[in-house]
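Please check our next protein.
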Amino acid sequence: MTVPPSPVVASWELALRLKQRRNELNISVETVTKALGFTRNYWSAVENERKLLSSEALKRVLDLFRFEAHEKAELRALRAAARERGWWSAYSALFDADIQRLFGLEHGARAIRDYESLLIPGLLQTADYIRAIMMPAVTLPQVEVDQRVEARLHRQARLADPNDSFTLTAVISEAALRQQIGGRNVLRQQLMHLAELIESHERKLDVRVIPFTATECGLFGAATVHLIEFENPQLPTLAWQESVTAWGVINDPIQVRDITTTYEEAYRTTAAPRNQTLQIIRDHIREL
């Protein structure tokens, strides 16, 4: 087993495997709490990733759940990884727990499929475009704006790393190519950057535009949607959905399945193919 590079993913996998094992053995929460001296609230926090077991407590749980020796080693390694601090912890004062969780999941993901209705995806944005998105909403101190820009650019590092196998698939509305975030020049530079990324990251990046001529699409009406996949087949795909006032991880299997089906239909039947998408982007650059 390869330990996830992200403490968020390591913590999630540890909690998930403990809960799955308890259910496999049909061990009740009451049995766990009585055998190990935990409260129900404590164990609930462990299974929901709000509490990381101490080394000694984990040992007792692993014995109670009758894990094999190699599994115990894997779970101890996950606990050690979960104790690390990701790069996003330096920005904890700027982002709430859900956003930081997204950063951690991104950092440990094998692949992300993204949909955006009116914006260029965050992992493909230029610094000027990022600043332009932030400025109209509220008056932020310049230092905070700079830190938020820095954090978003940091999220893009995996795509730029030639040794990282991470892949990104992005489906975007043609409206995102026309919305003049920051003005014509900022948008033009952004689209030039997007075209350059598509051309230079052929194996890692796949961008598809839903043209204005599309008459229907299941993603119409959505704002921001991510499907986050992981290297370990034991870890299910997660979804992230975001609107103006609400955002968060979706882990319900049925909801994730429905989002995945809708996304794949849009990608395969509604969005323009890769080469045509690149031509659409270049046409908009010339218009600007």
In short: The radius of gyration is 21 Å. The mean pLDDT is 92.
